[in-house]
Specification:
The structure holds two protein chains of two kinds. Chain A is an all-alpha fold. Chain A has one domain. Chain A has helices spanning 7-18, 20-34, 44-54, 65-84, 99-120, 124-155, 160-163, 166-174, 176-193, 221-246, 254-278, 287-308. In chain A, α4 (65-84) packs antiparallel against α5, α9 (176-193) packs antiparallel against α10 (221-246) and α9 packs antiparallel against α12 (287-308). The mean pLDDT of chain A is 90. By secondary structure, chain B is an all-alpha fold. Chain B is 73% helix and 0% strand. Chain A binds chain B through residues 177, 181, 288-290, 292-293, 295-297, 299-300, 303-304, 306-307, and chain B through 7-8, 11, 14-15, 18-19, 22, 106-107, 110-111, 113-115, 117-118, 121-122, 125, 136-137, 140.
Chain lengths: 309, 227
């Protein structure tokens, strides 16, 4: 199940631990530039995390252990997911046949505990946010799986490292259209899973319109820090998947591969920032339409791929 | 070359189907339908070139070439400019609401469109087709576009939405026509395009009458009319 500890695994874990908050900084900087502002420092998320982790914890008396469990499980599951996704054109540290299922449901587990923690506070707003999160996650999951189906059909593998490995480069030569459709649908999944505009506004200040942020309103101090870090990690994981899909070409040099990969994820963050700057938030009722549209496009990609054979 | 361009073109045409089924703002639907029409018009010479005998790339006679260019321009202008313009004008004159509504909601037709496209691809593989067609997507995309047009036609509540569904349906028939490019004489081809134009024209007139008789152009009011 575990491969021998290689230099790749060490780099992988180090990158996963240190790099993700930079993506949030890149997104915020892009948005600031679009708004004509200077913007906060690109390392601001690191400062925020350091500040939050130094604070003391305050827990509401009405909450139970479930509430304290939420952020921890959320971060742990995001971390496990990040170990399954291959990065820098090498096999992931945690890789076995069928790990695609683990990947999808480890993220679902984290979401479940975040929602349970939200419900545990007994606040009406947080329950509402949890309901929305569950609904939209239900609609986003098929898109993810249909994409994985296309990739596993192309590569003949059920392993994340195989799915998103060298076979993708060959896939672009034979079946570019399905892969392109999947890349677009996955970008939609990235936006909804990471609570980005047009689905959710990470900076909103009105509980009624929130989806994800409302679930973490009662968290503070280190717990909020864990949630923030988990969110950055999740964004990094999805950006990494898209980069594996779009830039599957290896150069042969470990260092260059990693550099390309990290710059690629930063590019995805810049694109996310651009999307957030140029389009408005969707009405709540419009969100399922866009997600189901992405699902239909992925289904079409699967059928298109099957029609080639 | 035709294989290289025809398949991506048809894939985009199918994606536009989904777009048309998803969006509800009338202007966006009109733009989507116009874009699909222009795309299919541009695919017309591409499909035409695909049916020429191999090895003689310059065997097009001048008359054929002129006919090809003329027809392409005619199709693109009618589908991409005249019909959308006409619809926009009808929208403005009749003062319709800017959003389409659906009798069963937006999502079920969209899902049915997706499954219909899948079924069309699966079904067309079992059809006994003559060999040598330029693209294996031609028949499925024709069927799928007809299905999407029909879904649009049967679920949209507004008259204008139904006109748009009718145009999408006709686009599907047009894709079928791409298969017969070699066999169909020029008059028939122009006839198909004119047919569509007249159809839209007639529907536009009916539509104006409906909007004059009732405050809004919803076809549900038609059932209250007496013979």
């Amino acid at each position: 199940m575990f491969e021998t500890l290689s230099i790749h695994s060490v780099i992988h874990v180090a990158v996963v631990l240190l790099f993700p908050p930079l993506l949030l900084g890149a997104v915020n900087r892009t948005k600031a530039k679009f708004g004509g502002r200077q913007g906060q420092p690109i390392l601001q998320t690191y400062y925020d995390l350091a500040k939050l982790l130094r604070k003391e914890s305050v827990f509401s008396e009405t909450t139970t252990w479930v509430f304290r469990f939420g952020p921890v499980v959320g971060l742990a599951t995001a971390f496990v997911a990040s170990l399954i996704v291959p990065m820098g054109h090498a096999s992931a540290p945690l890789s076995f046949a069928g790990d695609v299922i683990l990947f999808a449901y480890v993220l679902a587990l984290g979401r479940f505990f975040t929602m349970a923690a939200a419900l545990d506070t007994g606040s009406a707003f947080e329950g509402m946010g949890a309901a929305r999160e569950a609904t939209f996650a239900c609609l986003a999951e098929p898109v993810l799986f249909l994409g994985l189906l296309v990739l596993s059909r192309i590569s003949g593998s059920l392993q994340m490292s195989g799915l998103l490995g060298d076979s993708v480069a060959g896939g672009w030569a034979t079946s570019a259209a399905p892969l392109l459709l999947i890349a677009i649908s996955w970008f939609v999944v990235l936006l909804v899973e990471n609570c980005r505009i047009p689905f959710d506004d990470p900076n909103t200040h009105l509980e009624l319109t929130m989806i994800h942020e409302v679930m973490v309103l009662d968290h503070s101090g280190p717990a909020l820090g864990l949630i923030m870090y988990g969110a950055a990690l999740k964004l990094f994981v999805f950006a990494g998947m898209i980069i594996n899909l779009v830039l599957p070409f290896g150069t042969g040099s470990t260092l260059v591969d990693w550099l390309v990969f990290l710059l690629g994820t930063l590019l995805v963050a810049v694109i996310v920032g651009t999307v957030e700057s140029v389009i408005a938030r969707l009405k709540m009722a419009e969100i399922p339409k866009l997600l189901i549209g992405a699902g239909v496009v992925s289904l079409f990609a699967v059928i298109l791929l099957l029609s080639y054979s | 070359m035709s294989e290289l361009l025809l398949d991506p073109g048809l894939v985009v045409a199918l994606l536009i189907n989904f777009y048309i089924l998803t969006v509800t703002r009338l202007k966006q639907v009109v733009y989507g339908v116009a874009l699909q029409g222009v795309l299919l018009g541009l695919l017309y010479p591409v499909a035409h070139a695909g049916f020429l005998p191999r090895g003689e790339p310059h065997s097009l006679e001048t008359v054929t070439t002129l006919r090809l260019i003329g027809l392409t321009v005619a199709i693109v202008v009618i589908k991409g400019w005249i019909i959308p313009r006409f619809l926009m004008k009808a929208m403005r004159i009749a003062d319709v609401r800017s959003r389409l509504t659906s009798t069963v909601g937006i999502v079920p037709p969209l899902l049915m469109g997706g499954f219909g496209t899948a079924a069309a691809i699966v079904f067309s593989r079992s059809l006994p087709l003559a060999g040598g067609h330029a693209s294996h997507l031609l028949i499925p995309s024709a069927l799928a576009t007809v299905v999407c047009g029909f879904l649009m036609l049967s679920t949209r509540r507004e008259a204008l939405g139904q006109v748009l569904g009718y145009i999408v349906l006709e686009n599907g028939i047009f894709i079928f026509g791409l298969l017969l490019v070699e066999a169909v004489p020029i008059m028939v081809e122009l006839g198909i395009v004119l047919d569509l134009f007249v159809g839209v024209f007639v529907m536009g007139i009916i539509f104006n009458h409906v909007s004059r008789a009732f405050p809004e152009a919803s076809i549900e009011h038609l059932s209250s009319l007496k013979e």
